[in-house]
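Lab notebook, bench 4. The sequencing result for the construct came back, and we need a structural model before the next group meeting so we can plan mutations. Quick request posted to the team channel:

Model the 3D structure of this chain.
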Amino acid sequence: MIYLDYQATTPLAPEAREAMLAWLGGPETIGFANPHSPHGGGRAAAAAVEVAREQVAALMPPCGRVIFTGSATEALNLAIVGSGARRLAVSAIEHAAVLDTARAVNTDVKMLPVHGSGIVDPVTTFEDVDLVAVMQVNNEIGTIQPVEPLARAAHEAGALFVCDAVQGAGKLTAPTEADMIAISAHKLYGPKGIGALWVRDGLALAPQIHGGGQEFGLRSGTLSPALCAGFGVAAKLARERMDEDGAHVADLWQAARAILHRWILNGSDTQRWHGNLNLRLDGLDVARLMSDLRGVAFSAGSACASGSGRPSHVLSALGLSPREAKSSIRLGFGRYTSLREIEDACASIEAATVAQGV
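Done. Here's the predicted structure in token form:
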């Protein structure tokens, strides 16, 4: 199986797995201890959590704190709902974790349109808005948004700025102007089941999960030292390898584009993360293509929206027709993808489409 679905989830880094094992011990060890317990085992587990917190925080801007959550979706809920904001503006291509949460707060959400390249206009002004949410890198088409000028515009209007950096964390420098940043471990070669919300110092949030008062009183519940440790090491590794990983995916991108040269690119070809390749071919039967290529794992869009039967809201926002949107595929690759895998997968995709007569 050639795995090309890195936007859905990334492989677990061996270094992250190794870090987790020490905290997955059985009864003969103390590695299973509750990090909120006062005894020696608990204090050791708590220390591991704090090391991980510092490692994750190193990916973020200074002057803030990291709140561990169960996912980036939970982090975004804490940011948006916990802020108390009622008048919201979000980009039209946000992940459902932002769109659905914003609509749950207020059904009258201001949608920020994107150009045909999938970019929000950086020269945007905000009026009568309490909170603006724009993602750093789009999960379906890979476009990099101008989050810094948008955050400054939000602040000029007296609004908070929330950034979903799930697809950008560990790959790009974190947005320094944001007030809150949500990330997920399993999108940067860490484990599933843990995310984080970075909160700028001085910003107060209302907790959304009540109970034991963990995580500075903002997120009750027992933390998993194993998940935290894996997240921390994955974040540290991503920070150290950022340039190397970026150069690697750029080479893979060029190889893929050379083979799939007749396909049309969805989104900007320059202002994007090159580990994401969203392409369309008029007349393509995507379901048949996936059936024909069981040895290649790729997608037709967001994993969270798969099976809905509806055209992608992201591709629709670019101005694509339902037919064009449904003739699109997404290839995602990264650190552990080899050049040979990209070449073999793309050659197989091209051959299968020719066999379809498109």
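The chain has a mean pLDDT of 95.
Will bring this to the meeting.
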